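Input C-alpha cells:
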C-alpha cells in the first residue's frame, strides 16, 4: 500500500546523513527524519541490516517506541573494515507502516591497534624544520582487476596523499589537530578508482601543520616533535576476494618537493620550476616509534575548501601596493592566475583582516607572517595557491604582478565541512548583518576544533570561548561531531587533579595551567549543551567522569565554606570598562563570578548524572550544588537582591543560573540589573561571562524592552557598533577598531572572534521565537517578542527531527505567526500580545498559522 509517510536522512552517530566510510564506532547509533502528509506519531520502528559477507545475511529488528534520534544499534557490532547496508521504516499508533528509507551504508575503519601493519616512517636527511616539504613514495604492482581499495592514513604533521598523481580526496590539513600524545586521528579514503592494473605509485607530501609548526603566542614550534612521519595502509581487494596490503615500511623512499616552506601562521613558499621526478634524488626512510593504540577515526567531517568569493575591488594603496578587497572576512587562501613572467620571477601575497591608513593592517597578526610566496616557472598561465596553510583575511596585497584584474583572483574559503542548520532574518538590515557576522565567525573558527581566532599567532581551542558560544554554534551548524571529538581531547588532557587546560588541544602539555572558572567550565557546559541541542545522552555518559572531576577541582579550591575565592581567574574577560592592557580587571568581582560558576557546574553534573541513571552521583552533586548556591547567597546577596560588586554580569549569572530562588531577591536583582542597563545608556557593560546572559536575564526578569534597546545600541560598546564600522565578522573587542578607523592598540585585537556573538542565540529564541524546550528539540517553545521597529522576523533550524520554521509579520491588521513543525516535535505556542501566564497552544507536526491583533 502506498503510504504518505517517508523516512529520510538516515544517519549514523553525528555524521551527516547518508553513507559513512571509516567510522570508528562498532555499534553506531541511528537517526532518521520522518515526512508525513497526515498526522503521524511514531510508535514503532524497524531496522533492516544487510551484511554482505561471504554468507550474506539480512536481519530485521523491530523496536517499540518513538525514538528516532541516536537510536541504539540493534545488531551485533561491526568488525574492522566491515560494511553494512541499513534502512529504516516506522509505524504510527494506528499500525500503518511507512515506506522504507533509502538504504545507507556504513563501513567500519580499523577499530583495533592490531589491524595496523603500517609503521610510521620518516625521511632520512631531508624534511627538517627549515627544509622543503618532503614527499614520501612507494611503487606497487596490481596483477588484475580489483573490486575495492581503501587507504587508511595519518601523520606526524599534515599529509596530502595521491595515487598515480591523483589526490585521494579533497580534504586539506589531514589528519587535523587532536591531543597527539593521546589521540591521533586517521582518515579513510575510497581509492578504488585510482588503482590501475600494472604499476602504481602512492605518494604523500608531509607538512608541518599543528604537529611541528608554530603554535601559541610564544612563537615556538615543534611542540609535539621535530620529525615528520607518515603512516599509510593501502588495502586492495581483488575480484577473487584476496586482499593485498601496501603499508609504510622501510622500503619506502622520500624526496624533496617544490614546497620550500610551510606553516599555518606564516604561509607557504612554492617553487614551480620543474624538477624531473625520474631523476630527482631519493633518500631512504626510517621507521620511528609511534604506537597505533592512539589512532582514532573521525567523529565529524574533514577540513575542505567549502566555497569561493570573488574579488570585489583592486586598487593601489597610498604607498603604491596592489590591494584586493574580497568583501568578507573569512578563512582560506587566495587563488591567483598569472601569466607572462620569466622563470624565477617571484609573486608574493600578504593577508590581513582590515586596512589601516589605506594600507594592509597587519599589526593584529602579531608574529604571524600570513604570506605566500611563489617562484614561477615561465610565461605560461599558472594558477597559484598555497598548501598546508590557512589565512584569516578580507584584504590581500600582491607584489610581483602589475596587470591584475578581478577575474584573476578568488578567495577559496576553507573550513570544516559543517552542514548549515540554522538561519535568522528580520526587517532590520543591521540586525540581519549582525547575525550574518556571527555565521561567518562560526565558519571561520570551527577549523577542526573551536578556535578563538583564525588569523594571528594563536588559533587555539580556548575553553572559555566555546563554553559561552556552544548553544549558538549548535543552532547555526551541525558541530556535534566536531565537539564530540574535541571533548574527548579535553578529557584526555584534563589534569589528574581535575583541572582543565585553558586551551584544548594543549600544545604546551608539559605545563599546568591554573584552574580558572568559566574556562574550565567547558568540561561540564559543552557536553551539557551538546545534549540539550542534540539529545545525545551518550555524550553525558562518556564525559561524566570528566565533568565531575572539574567540579571536584572547584570544590577543593573552594574549601569548606563553598566559596571559590582568590587565585588566578580570567574573570569577566574583556569587560569594556577594563583597562585595555588588563582585560581581566572587570567590574564583576572575580570571587562572585567563580562561586557562581561553581554552583552552575555542580548543578549540571547532578542533572547529567540524573539523565544517565547514575542516581548516587546525581544526589551527591545535587547536594553540593545547593550548598554552593546557598553559600553564594549568604556571602554576596542582600535581602533586596543587591549583589557584591554591583555589576551587570553578577546579576545576570545569578538570575540565569538559578542561584537566586527567593522571590524578593530575584525581583530585586532583576530591577537592579535593569537600572544598571539604563544607567549605562544601553551600552554593553559585560565581558565573556555576562554577554551571553544579559539579554536573557533582562527578558526573564520582565524587561525585554531593555534587552531590545541594548541590542539596538550603535555607539561603542555595543553589538551594532562594529556593524556601523563595516564589520563582516564578530570582533574580539567591542572596540577592535576605533571610530577614527585606526586599530585598537591593545595586544589582543582580532576582527574574527565568535564569543561576543553569543547574543545570536537570544535573537533566535526571543526575537524570532524559536527555542528548544526539551533535549534535541523534541519539544519547542514558540514565544516571539514582536518588538517595535521590526516588521518581521524569522528563524529556521534543522533540528535532529527535521526543519523547524517560525516567522512572524506585522501588518495593519495585526501580526501573523507561522510555525512549521516536523514529525517527532511538539510545540508550545504563546501568541504575540497574549498573556504569558496563560496556558500555551500545543500543536504537533504540520504548518500552523495564527493571526493576532497585537
Amino acid at each position: 500500500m502506498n503510504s504518505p509517510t517517508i523516512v529520510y536522512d538516515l544517519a549514523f552517530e553525528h555524521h551527516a546523513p547518508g553513507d559513512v566510510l571509516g567510522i570508528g564506532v562498532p555499534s553506531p547509533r541511528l537517526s532518521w527524519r520522518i515526512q508525513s502528509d497526515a498526522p503521524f506519531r511514531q510508535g514503532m520502528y524497524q531496522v533492516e541490516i544487510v551484511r554482505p559477507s561471504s554468507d550474506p545475511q539480512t536481519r530485521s529488528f523491530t523496536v517499540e517506541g518513538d525514538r528516532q534520534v541516536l537510536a541504539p544499534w540493534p545488531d551485533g557490532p561491526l568488525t574492522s573494515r566491515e560494511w553494512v547496508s541499513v534502512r529504516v521504516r516506522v509505524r504510527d499508533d494506528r499500525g500503518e507502516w511507512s515506506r522504507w528509507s533509502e538504504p545507507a551504508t556504513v563501513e567500519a575503519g580499523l577499530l583495533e591497534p592490531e589491524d595496523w601493519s603500517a609503521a610510521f616512517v620518516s625521511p632520512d636527511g631531508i624534511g627538517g624544520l627549515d627544509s622543503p616539504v618532503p614527499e614520501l613514495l612507494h611503487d606497487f604492482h596490481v596483477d588484475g582487476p580489483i573490486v575495492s581499495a581503501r587507504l587508511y592514513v595519518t601523520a606526524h604533521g599534515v599529509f596530502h596523499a595521491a595515487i598515480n598523481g591523483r589526490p585521494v580526496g579533497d580534504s586539506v590539513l589531514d589528519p587535523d589537530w587532536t591531543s597527539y600524545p593521546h589521540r591521533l586521528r586517521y582518515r579513510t579514503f575510497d581509492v578504488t578508482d585510482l588503482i590501475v592494473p600494472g604499476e602504481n605509485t602512492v605518494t604523500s607530501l608531509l607538512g608541518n601543520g599543528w604537529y611541528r609548526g608554530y603554535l601559541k603566542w610564544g612563537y615556538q614550534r615543534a611542540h609535539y616533535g621535530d620529525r615528520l612521519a607518515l603512516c599509510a595502509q593501502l588495502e586492495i581487494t581483488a575480484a577473487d576476494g584476496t586482499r593485498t596490503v601496501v603499508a609504510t615500511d622501510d622500503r619506502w623512499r622520500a624526496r624533496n618537493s617544490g614546497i620550500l616552506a610551510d606553516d599555518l601562521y606564516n604561509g607557504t613558499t612554492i617553487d614551480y620550476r620543474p624538477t624531473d621526478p625520474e631523476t630527482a634524488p631519493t633518500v631512504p626512510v626510517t621507521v620511528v616509534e609511534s604506537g597505533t593504540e592512539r589512532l582514532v577515526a573521525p567523529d565529524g567531517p574533514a577540513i575542505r575548501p567549502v566555497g569561493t568569493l570573488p574579488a570585489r575591488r583592486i586598487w593601489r594603496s597610498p604607498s603604491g601596493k596592489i590591494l584586493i578587497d574580497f568583501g568578507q572576512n573569512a578563512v582560506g587562501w587566495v587563488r591567483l592566475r598569472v601569466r607572462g613572467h620569466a622563470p624565477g620571477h617571484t609573486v608574493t601575497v600578504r593577508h590581513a583582516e582590515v586596512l589601516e591608513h589605506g594600507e594592509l593592517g597587519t599589526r593584529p597578526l602579531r608574529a604571524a607572517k600570513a604570506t605566500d610566496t611563489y617562484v614561477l616557472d615561465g610565461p605560461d598561465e599558472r594558477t597559484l595557491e598555497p598548501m598546508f596553510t590557512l589565512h584569516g583575511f578580507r584584504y590581500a596585497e600582491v607584489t610581483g604582478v602589475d596587470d591584475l584584474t578581478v577575474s584573476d583572483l578568488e578567495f577559496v574559503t576553507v573550513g570544516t565541512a559543517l552542514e548549515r542548520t540554522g538561519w535568522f532574518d528580520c526587517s532590520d538590515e543591521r540586525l540581519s548583518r549582525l547575525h550574518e557576522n556571527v555565521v561567518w565567525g562560526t565558519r571561520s573558527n570551527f577549523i577542526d576544533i573551536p578556535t578563538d581566532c583564525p588569523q594571528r599567532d594563536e588559533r587555539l581551542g580556548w575553553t572559555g570561548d566555546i563554553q559561552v558560544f556552544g548553544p549558538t554554534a549548535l543552532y547555526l551548524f551541525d558541530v556535534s561531531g566536531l565537539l564530540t571529538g574535541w571533548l574527548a581531547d579535553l578529557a584526555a588532557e584534563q589534569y589528574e587533579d581535575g583541572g582543565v587546560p585553558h586551551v584544548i588541544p594543549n600544545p604546551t602539555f608539559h605545563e599546568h595551567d591554573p584552574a580558572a572558572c568559566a574556562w574550565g567550565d567547558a568540561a561540564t557546559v559543552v557536553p551539557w549543551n551538546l545534549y540539550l541541542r542534540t539529545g545525545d545522552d551518550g555524550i553525558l555518559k562518556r564525559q561524566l567522569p570528566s565533568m565531575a572531576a572539574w567540579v571536584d577541582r572547584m570544590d577543593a579550591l573552594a574549601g569548606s565554606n563553598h566559596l571559590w575565592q582568590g587565585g588566578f581567574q580570567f574573570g569577566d574577560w574583556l569587560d569594556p570598562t577594563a583597562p585595555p592592557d588588563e582585560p581581566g580587571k572587570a567590574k564583576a568581582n572575580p570571587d562572585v563570578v567563580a562561586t557562581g560558576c561553581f554552583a552552575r557546574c555542580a548543578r549540571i553534573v547532578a542533572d547529567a548524572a540524573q539523565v544517565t541513571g547514575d542516581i548516587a552521583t546525581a544526589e551527591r552533586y545535587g547536594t553540593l550544588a545547593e550548598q554552593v548556591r546557598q553559600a553564594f547567597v549568604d556571602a554576596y546577596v542582600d535581602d533586596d537582591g543587591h549583589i557584591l560588586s554591583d555589576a551587570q554580569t553578577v546579576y545576570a549569572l545569578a538570575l540565569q543560573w538559578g542561584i537566586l530562588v527567593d522571590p524578593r531577591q530575584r525581583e530585586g536583582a532583576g530591577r537592579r540589573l535593569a537600572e544598571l542597563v539604563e544607567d549605562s545608556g544601553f551600552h554593553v557593560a559585560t565581558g565573556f561571562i555576562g554577554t551571553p546572559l544579559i539579554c536573557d536575564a533582562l527578558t526573564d526578569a520582565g524587561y525585554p524592552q531593555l534587552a531590545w534597546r541594548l541590542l539596538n545600541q550603535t555607539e561603542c560598546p555595543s553589538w551594532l557598533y562594529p556593524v556601523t564600522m563595516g564589520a563582516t565578522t564578530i570582533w574580539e573587542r567591542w572596540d577592535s577598531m576605533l571610530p577614527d578607523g585606526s586599530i585598537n592598540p591593545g595586544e589582543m585585537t582580532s576582527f574574527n572572534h565568535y564569543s561576543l556573538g553569543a547574543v545570536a542565540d537570544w535573537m533566535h529564541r526571543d526575537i524570532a521565537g524559536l527555542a528548544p524546550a526539551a533535549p534535541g528539540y523534541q519539544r519547542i517553545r514558540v514565544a516571539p517578542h514582536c518588538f517595535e521597529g521590526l516588521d518581521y522576523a524569522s528563524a529556521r533550524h534543522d533540528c535532529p527531527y527535521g526543519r523547524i520554521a517560525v516567522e512572524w509579520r506585522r501588518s495593519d491588521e495585526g501580526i501573523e505567526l507561522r510555525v512549521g513543525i516536523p514529525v517527532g516535535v511538539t510545540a508550545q505556542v504563546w501568541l504575540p500580545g497574549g498573556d504569558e501566564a496563560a496556558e500555551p497552544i500545543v500543536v504537533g507536526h504540520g504548518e500552523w498559522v495564527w493571526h493576532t491583533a497585537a
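Residues 419-477+714-767 form one domain. The CA atoms of residues 501 and 512 lie 7 Å apart.
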